[in-house]
């Protein structure tokens, strides 16, 4: 309203049309994805502590069970740039902030070269198959436009409160799927 008052002080015959979907719904949902594969050169397993000459080049590629043909279609259609965070590491939902990270990329399951969820992000180099990543603000224009490209099913939606008592419900649901 402040901007409207500033830039449109005279509003005779002015119609303001807004698309409120993303505003109201984006933050209503988070998306949890399971790591289904991991690709890294041998030196990326954490054994080597050599200085990294190009810290912004992904060293590890993580493949997850959803991609741009599913709930991440917002990347292609709406130019969104979702960023992951770790939900579980080595079976634990407690991920210490001291866990070393490296430049990584996150990919969908389809083996299609455009199925890139996140080209560069920093994630723990010790994530393994079965660990979980999460993405916030995935409520608007995501699952509603998903397809079953290459035979992959549309994401299963589990409704929880997500905090307080609901966080135990989320952990139980994730363990069931793992």
**What kind of assembly state do the chains in view correspond to?**
single chain
Strand content: 15-25%
Largest sheet: 6 strands, mixed
Structural class: alpha+beta
Head-to-tail CA distance between termini? 46 Å
Under the CATH scheme, which architecture would be assigned?
Beta Barrel
Query: Which descriptor suits the 3D outline?
Result: globular
Number of domains: 1
CATH superfamily: Lyase, Ornithine Decarboxylase, Chain A, domain 1
CATH class: Mainly Beta
What percent of residues adopt helix (DSSP H or I)?
A: 10-25%
Largest sheet: spatial strand order: 3-6-1-2-4-5
| Cα radius of gyration in angstroms | 19 Å
Number of helices: 4
Residue stretches low in confidence (pLDDT < 50, at least 5 long) are none
- Tally of strands: 6
Offer a concise description of the structure.
The chain has 178 residues and is of the alpha+beta class.
Walk me through what this model shows.
By secondary structure, this protein is of the alpha+beta class. It has a single domain (25-41, 54-177), classed as Lyase, Ornithine Decarboxylase, Chain A, domain 1. It contains 4 helices and 6 strands, in the order ααββαββββα. The chain has helices at residues 2-7, 21-25, 73-78, 165-177, and strands at 31-39, 60-64, 84-88, 101-107, 116-124, 132-135. It has a 6-stranded mixed β-sheet with strand order 3-6-1-2-4-5, with no helix packed on it. Strand 4 (101-107) and strand 5 (116-124) form a beta hairpin.
């Amino acid at each position: 309203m402040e901007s409207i008052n500033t830039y449109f002080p005279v509003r005779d015959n002015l119609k303001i049309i807004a698309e409120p979907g993303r505003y109201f719904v984006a933050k209503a949902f988070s998306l949890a994805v399971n790591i289904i594969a991991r690709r890294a050169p041998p030196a990326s397993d954490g054994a080597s502590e050599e200085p990294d000459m190009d810290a912004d080049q992904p060293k590890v590629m993580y493949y997850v069970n959803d991609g741009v043909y599913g709930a991440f279609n917002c990347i292609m259609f709406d130019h969104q740039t979702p960023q992951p965070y770790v939900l579980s590491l080595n079976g634990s939902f407690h991920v210490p902030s001291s866990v070393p990270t490296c430049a990584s990329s996150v990919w969908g399951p389809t083996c299609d070269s455009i199925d890139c969820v996140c080209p560069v992000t920093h994630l723990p180099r010790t994530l393994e198959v079965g660990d979980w990543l999460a993405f916030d603000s995935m409520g608007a224009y995501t699952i509603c436009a998903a397809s079953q490209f290459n035979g992959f099913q549309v994401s299963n939606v589990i409704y929880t409160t997500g905090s307080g008592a609901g966080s135990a419900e989320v952990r139980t649901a994730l363990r069931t799927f793992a």
